[in-house]
Specification:
By secondary structure, this protein is α+β, with helices and mostly antiparallel strands. Helix 3 runs antiparallel to helix 4, helix 4 packs across helix 5 and helix 13 crosses helix 14. The protein is globular. It folds into three domains: 149 residues, no CATH class; 115 residues, no CATH class; 55 residues, no CATH class. It is 43% helix and 16% strand.
C-alpha cells in the first residue's frame, strides 16, 4: 500500500484482528510477560453503550474482558488510590475518575434524524474522559469506528472525489440540494455515508437502524416499526434511501470488499498532489484530512512531532548529545544505538528496538 511509502515505520508494526476477547488477550504481550509495546484499537461502542428507549436513553460504562473496567466499584478503588497523592498527575487522574463516576447512567438525548447527540447531553466530554483513561491502558478508542477515521468531515472532498471516480456519484447536485435545505447539513451527509459503508453515526447507530428495505417491508405488511428501526425518524430513513439511490447501496458492500484499500490509495494520491502544490510535507497535509487516523499512526511513530525518519531521529539524538552508548549485538550482526529515549531489549533470539514505548524494529536472529 502506498501509505507505507510515507509512513515507513508501519512496515515494522504487526497488526492482528481479534474476533474475540480470548484471542485479543492472548495476543497482548503483557499476557506472555513480553516487553513488546502494543496498542489496541476499539470502536467507541466497545467501551460506551447507549441503552434504553428512543426517548429515554442513558450512557452505560462497563467491563470488557481484561482490557478495561469502568464498573463503579473498580473506579472507586482507583479513586481512593489517587486521593493519597498530591502530584499534578494524581490530581488529573482523580478528576477524570470523579467525572466518570458522575456520568454513570447519565441520560442523553439524540436527534433522531441527524443521529447525533444533543449538545445538552455533553457526550463529547464523556467520550474524552473514557478515551483518556483507556490510553493509559494502551487502548485507543475511535470516536465511532475505524471507518470513521476515514469517512469524516475533514476528508469530505477526498470522499466525494473517490465516490465520483468509483461509483459515478454526482455530489455537486447533492451539495447544492443541501445548501438550499433548512434541515440538511453536510455533517449529516458525511454521517450517513459512513453508515452506508458499515461505519456508525455520531450517535453510534449503524445501518440496521436505518435499513431501508426492512423499513419498507414493515410498512408494506402493515406491521408496527420495531427493534432498532425505532431509533431513527421516518425522515432519516427517507434520506438514507435517497442517498443510497445516488451513491451506493449498503447491501452491495461488506467489511471485506476492499473499499478501504481503494479509498486509501485514492486519498494518498490526493494528499501527495496537495502537499506538492502547497510545498508542505505529506504528514502535514494528511493530518488535516484524517486527524484521527493520523493520531493513531503518530502513536506508532519514532518521534511524536514532525515527519522525522528513524535515521534522522537517531542523528538528532546524536546532535543533542543524548547518545549514551552503542551496543554491538554480534549474534545478530547489527549495531543498535541506545539513548535515554531509545532502548534495546535483547531476548534469546531477537532484539527489539523501542522509542517512547513504541516498537520500531524487531530483528530476529537466524
Amino acid at each position: 500500500m502506498r501509505m507505507i511509502e510515507h509512513f515507513p515505520h508501519l512496515k515494522n508494526v504487526d497488526v492482528y484482528k481479534c474476533s474475540s476477547n480470548v484471542i485479543g488477550e492472548r495476543v497482548n504481550p503483557s499476557y506472555s510477560n513480553s516487553a513488546i509495546p502494543y496498542l489496541f484499537l476499539f470502536d467507541a461502542d466497545k467501551a460506551i453503550t447507549i441503552k434504553g428507549e428512543p426517548k429515554n436513553l442513558s450512557v452505560k460504562l462497563g467491563k470488557n474482558g481484561d482490557y478495561f473496567d469502568f464498573k463503579p466499584d473498580t473506579l472507586k478503588l482507583e479513586l481512593n488510590k489517587y486521593k493519597m497523592g498530591f502530584s499534578k498527575k494524581y490530581k488529573l487522574k482523580r478528576e477524570n475518575i470523579e467525572f466518570l463516576l458522575s456520568t454513570m447512567n447519565k441520560t442523553v438525548k439524540v436527534d433522531n434524524t441527524k443521529q447525533c447527540f444533543l449538545e445538552e447531553s455533553d457526550f463529547e466530554s464523556i467520550f474524552h474522559a473514557v478515551k483518556i483513561r483507556l490510553l493509559e491502558k494502551n487502548v485507543y478508542l475511535n470516536r465511532t469506528t475505524l471507518e470513521g477515521c476515514l469517512i469524516q468531515r475533514h476528508s469530505s472532498e477526498i470522499l466525494y472525489g473517490w465516490l465520483k471516480n468509483k461509483y459515478s456519484s454526482d455530489f455537486d447536485s447533492i451539495l447544492q440540494r443541501i445548501e438550499r435545505s433548512k434541515y440538511l447539513t453536510e455533517d449529516m451527509l458525511i454521517d450517513y455515508l459512513r453508515v452506508i459503508f458499515n461505519g456508525k453515526s455520531m450517535a453510534l447507530t449503524d445501518y440496521s437502524h436505518f435499513n431501508v428495505e426492512a423499513y419498507k417491508q414493515t410498512l408494506d405488511n402493515g406491521r408496527k416499526v420495531a427493534g432498532k428501526l425505532r431509533y431513527t425518524s421516518r425522515h432519516a430513513k427517507m434520506l438514507m434511501r435517497l442517498l443510497e439511490e445516488n451513491t451506493v447501496r449498503n447491501k452491495f458492500l461488506d467489511k471485506t470488499d476492499g473499499w478501504t484499500t481503494s479509498f486509501l490509495n485514492y486519498a494518498v494520491e490526493y494528499v501527495e498532489n496537495e502537499s506538492s502544490s502547497k510545498n508542505q510535507s505529506f504528514g502535514t497535509v494528511f493530518k488535516v484530512h484524517f486527524p484521527e487516523f493520523y493520531d493513531i499512526i503518530r502513536m506508532l511513530q519514532p518521534i511524536v512531532e514532525g515527519d522525522m525518519s528513524f535515521d534522522n531521529y537517531l542523528r538528532a539524538c546524536l546532535s543533542r548529545s543524548l547518545l549514551e552508548r552503542v551496543q554491538l549485538l554480534s549474534s545478530l550482526g547489527i549495531v543498535l544505538m541506545t539513548t535515554n529515549l531509545v532502548t534495546v531489549i535483547s531476548m534469546c533470539r531477537s532484539a527489539h528496538l523501542r522509542c517512547n514505548g513504541v516498537l520500531l524494529y524487531r530483528v530476529e536472529a537466524l
